[in-house]
Design brief:
The complex is a heterodimer of chains A (337) and B (305). Chain A is α/β, with parallel strands linked by helices and 337 residues long. In chain A, 48% of the residues lie in helices and 16% in strands. In chain A, helix 3 crosses helix 11. Chain A starts with 9 loop residues before the first helix and ends with a strand. The relative contact order of chain A is 0.11. Chain B is an alpha/beta fold. Chain B has a single domain, classed as Alpha-Beta Complex (2-enoyl-CoA Hydratase, Chain A, domain 1), CATH 3.90.226. Chain B is 30% helix and 17% strand. In chain B, the strands form two sheets. In chain B, strands 3, 5, 6, 7, 8, 9, 10 and 11 form an eight-stranded mixed β-sheet that branches. Chain B starts with 22 loop residues before the first strand and ends in a 33-residue tail after the last helix. The relative contact order of chain B is 0.15. The N terminus and C terminus of chain B are likely disordered.
Chain lengths: 337, 305
C-alpha cells in the first residue's frame, strides 16, 4: 500500500491566495487613505510571482485539474479553426434534437478529409450555458455515433476532441438512455472500420469522455486529466468530504504522465509553461503534427489490422492477480465436490 | 439439492442482510415471513413481491439446471495497481465477507437444458464494482461464448466502476464492450439481466448491450445517482425514478421478469435466438406454486451446512 503523502501543493496555493489578498488590501488602503505603499506592494508582487512559478514548474495533480478546467484553456472551436479547413458542421441525432454540447463536422487536415467530433465547451458563461458546459445528453452521443458511422461508410478517419466534466446527470438524460447511449458508442467505436485518433485536450470526465474516446491512438495534452470520477466526487464518497479533492486527485492517477505509464494514452503532447492558455499558439502545431503522424500511420493499415490492434489494446488494460499461481491459469474450477 | 454449491469456501456467506432466525422481516412491507417460505419463494416476499438481493452463487443456483455449472477463474482477483489508500484492506474484507476472490462469478451451465456461458456480479463484494478483475472476467466470459459458439447471459448487480483503480476501471467499460461487440459480430445471443442495483459504468457498458435486456422487478437501474441528479436539476425525483418499471415504460429495457419466471423466460429467449438445446429441459425448480414441486423448488443458499 502506498504511504506517499498527497502532493497537492495546496500549501503553495494557500500562500499565494494570502499574498494576493494582502496586495488587494494594501491597494485599497493606498487608494482610500492616500498612503504610499508602492514598495510594500512591489515586494508582495514579487513573492506572488515566485509562488506562481513554483506552482507551475512542478504542478501537483490538483493543480493540473485546475489547469485542465481553466476558463481560458483552448476550446474545441479553437482547435477546429486552427487545424482544419473547409469545415462543414453536421447537426442532430435524427431522433430527438441537436445537442450543442457535442460538435460534429466534416473538415480537412492538410487537405485530407476527416470527420471531427468533440465535446464543445463555451468561451464564456453565456455560451457555456447554451452548450451545457460540454456535458452531453444521450442525443449528443447519438449524434457523434451517427457521424462516426458516416465516416466509416465513406472511409474517412475520425478525429475526436475530448473535453467534458462528464455526461449530463439529469432526469431527462436518464429517461432518454444516457447509459445505453454511452455503452453503444463505446462498443461501436471498438468495431468502427476506420482509423480513430483521440485527443484529450482538457477534462476527460469518465464515461461521458470515453463515449467518444475509444481509438487507435489516444493523445493527451500535458495538463489534461482523464479520470473515472471527479476528485471532488471521489473525496465525497470515500471520505465524505469534498474538500479533500486535492488528495483524491493525487490518488486517482489522472494526469497525462500517469496515464502514459499505465498504458492508457499513447502520447503526451507538451504544453507551454503554466498551461495551454498562456500560449495557445504553441499548442496548436503540436496537436497538428501529432494528428498528422498518427493519421498517416493508420491510413495505410487495413481495417482488419486496425480492429485487431484496437481490440488487443483495450483487452490488455488492467492489472489482475491469479491467486492460484501454480494451478493451470484460466482452467476450469468445478464447483462440485 | 444444490450440491454444486457445497464447497466449503461458500459455507459462510448465508443470510447476509437478514438477521439470523426462523423469521425474516421484509424491508419493504415489514411483514414477518417464515424464512423457509421466503427461501422456497426464491427470496421474493410472498406478501408484497419484494425481490431480496441475491449473491452471485445464489443467483446461479436459482437460474441454472442442477449440477450443470462449471466455474472458471475462481481464483482471479484485483491487484492494487495504483496503491490506492485503503483499497488492499477493502479487498481483503470483501474476500473475507463473501468467500469470493472478486465481484463476479462466471462459468458454463445450462438453463432448462440449454448450454450457455453465464456470469453473475456480486453486489456483496464491494458493491459489485468493476475493476480490472471484473472487467477481465466479463471479457473472458464473452470470449468463451464466442469461441464455443454459446449464448452469453450476464446478471448485473453493481454500483459501477471501481473508483480505487482509477482510469483502469474506466477502461474496463471499453474492454467488456469490445468483447461483447465481437459476440454481436458473430451473431451469438447475449441476454443481459439487470438486478438490483445496476448503475454507473456497468450500465454504460455491457449491461445495456444485451440483444435482449431484462430486469428484475423493482431493480434500481440508472447511470447517474439520484442525489447527483437532484442536486443538478434542483428538484425532487419521483419515487419510481430509475426503477426497472420506469425503465420499461421509457423504452430502455425489453421486459421486467419476476424471479420465478426468469428461468423459463431465458430458456424461451435462447430458443428464439438460436441457442442449441443439448438435452431435454431439467425439471423446473423455479416455478413457485406449481403443483407437486414444493420439495424440488429451488432453495437458494441458506440450507447449506
Amino acid at each position: 500500500m502506498s504511504t506517499r503523502p498527497p502532493t497537492d501543493g495546496s500549501d503553495l496555493d494557500r500562500q499565494l491566495a494570502e499574498v494576493q489578498q494582502e496586495i488587494e488590501r494594501l491597494r485599497r488602503l493606498s487608494r482610500d487613505q492616500g498612503l504610499s505603499l508602492e514598495d510594500e506592494i512591489a515586494t508582495l508582487q514579487e513573492r506572488a510571482e515566485a509562488l506562481t512559478t513554483a506552482i507551475y514548474s512542478n504542478p501537483s495533480p490538483w493543480h493540473i485539474v485546475q489547469l485542465a478546467r481553466h476558463a481560458q484553456r483552448p476550446r474545441l472551436q479553437d482547435y477546429v479553426l486552427e487545424l482544419f479547413t473547409d469545415v462543414i458542421e453536421l447537426h442532430g441525432d435524427r431522433h430527438f434534437r441537436d445537442d450543442p454540447a457535442m460538435f460534429a463536422a466534416l473538415a480537412r487536415l492538410d487537405g485530407q478529409p476527416v470527420m471531427v467530433i468533440g465535446h464543445n465547451k463555451g468561451k464564456d458563461t453565456k455560451e457555456n450555458i447554451a452548450r451545457n458546459f460540454a456535458m452531453p445528453y444521450p442525443e449528443g452521443y447519438r449524434k457523434a455515433l451517427r457521424v462516426m458511422k458516416l465516416a466509416e461508410k465513406f472511409h474517412l478517419p475520425v478525429v475526436a476532441f475530448v473535453d467534458t466534466p462528464g455526461a449530463f446527470p439529469g432526469d431527462a438524460a436518464e429517461e432518454r438512455g444516457q447509459a445505453e447511449a454511452i455503452a453503444r458508442n463505446i462498443e461501436e467505436m471498438t468495431r468502427l472500420r476506420t482509423p480513430v485518433v483521440v485527443v484529450i485536450t482538457g477534462e476527460g470526465g469518465s464515461g461521458g469522455a470515453l463515449a467518444i474516446a475509444v481509438g487507435d491512438a489516444v493523445l493527451m495534452l500535458q495538463y489534461a486529466v482523464y479520470t473515472v470520477i471527479s476528485p471532488e466526487g471521489c473525496a465525497a464518497i470515500l471520505w465524505r468530504d469534498a474538500t479533500r479533492a486535492a488528495e483524491a486527485a493525487a490518488a486517482l492517477r489522472l494526469t497525462a504522465d500517469d496515464l502514459l505509464r499505465l498504458g492508457i494514452v499513447d502520447q503526451v503532447l507538451p504544453e507551454p509553461f503554466g498551461g495551454a492558455h498562456r500560449d495557445p499558439e504553441a499548442v496548436f502545431p503540436k496537436v497538428r503534427d501529432a494528428l498528422r503522424t498518427h493519421l498517416q500511420d493508420l491510413h495505410r493499415r487495413p481495417a482488419e489490422e486496425l480492429l485487431g490492434r484496437r481490440y488487443a489494446k483495450y483487452r490488455d488494460i488492467g492489472r489482475i492477480v491469479d491467486a492460484r499461481m501454480n494451478g493451470e491459469p484460466g482452467g476450469p474450477t468445478n464447483l462440485r465436490p | 439439492m444444490l450440491n454444486w454449491l457445497r464447497r466449503p469456501k461458500y459455507g459462510t456467506l448465508q443470510r447476509r442482510e437478514m438477521p439470523a432466525g426462523i423469521w425474516a422481516k421484509c424491508p419493504r412491507c415489514s411483514n414477518l415471513i417464515y424464512r423457509k417460505e421466503l427461501d422456497r419463494n426464491l427470496r421474493v416476499c410472498p406478501k408484497c413481491g419484494y425481490h431480496h438481493r441475491l449473491s452471485a452463487e445464489e443467483r446461479l443456483a436459482v437460474t441454472l439446471d442442477e449440477d450443470s455449472f462449471v466455474e472458471f477463474d475462481a481464483d482471479l482477483t484485483s491487484a492494487d495497481p495504483l496503491g490506492f489508500a485503503g483499497y488492499a484492506q477493502k479487498l481483503e474484507e470483501a474476500r473475507e465477507k463473501t468467500g469470493r476472490g472478486e465481484a463476479v462469478l462466471w462459468g458454463e451451465g445450462r438453463v432448462q437444458g440449454r448450454r450457455a456461458v453465464v456470469a453473475a456480479l456480486d453486489f456483496y463484494f464491494m458493491g459489485g464494482s468493476m475493476g480490472s478483475a471484473v472487467g477481465e472476467m466479463v471479457a473472458r466470459a464473452a470470449e468463451r461464448a464466442h469461441a464455443q459458439a454459446l449464448p452469453l447471459i450476464i446478471f448485473s448487480a453493481s454500483g459501477g466502476a471501481r473508483m480505487q483503480e482509477g482510469v483502469l476501471s474506466l477502461m474496463q467499460l471499453a474492454k467488456t464492450s469490445a468483447a461483447v461487440g465481437r459476440l454481436h459480430g458473430a451473431g451469438l445471443p447475449y441476454l443481459s439481466v439487470m438486478c438490483d442495483p445496476t448503475t454507473g459504468g456497468v450500465t454504460a457498458s455491457f449491461a445495456f448491450l444485451g440483444d435482449v435486456v431484462l430486469a428484475e422487478p423493482g431493480a434500481l437501474i440508472g447511470f447517474a445517482g439520484r442525489r447527483v441528479i437532484e442536486q443538478t436539476i434542483r428538484k425532487k425525483l419521483p419515487d419510481d425514478f430509475q426503477t426497472a418499471e420506469f425503465c420499461l415504460q421509457k423504452g430502455l429495457i425489453d421486459m421486467v421478469v419476476p424471479r420465478g419466471e426468469m428461468r423459463p423466460t431465458l430458456a424461451a429467449l435462447l430458443a428464439y435466438l438460436g441457442a442449441p438445446q443439448v438435452e431435454p429441459p431439467a425439471p423446473s425448480r423455479a416455478a413457485p406454486g406449481a403443483a407437486g414441486e414444493e420439495e424440488s423448488a429451488a432453495v437458494p443458499a441458506p440450507e447449506r451446512p
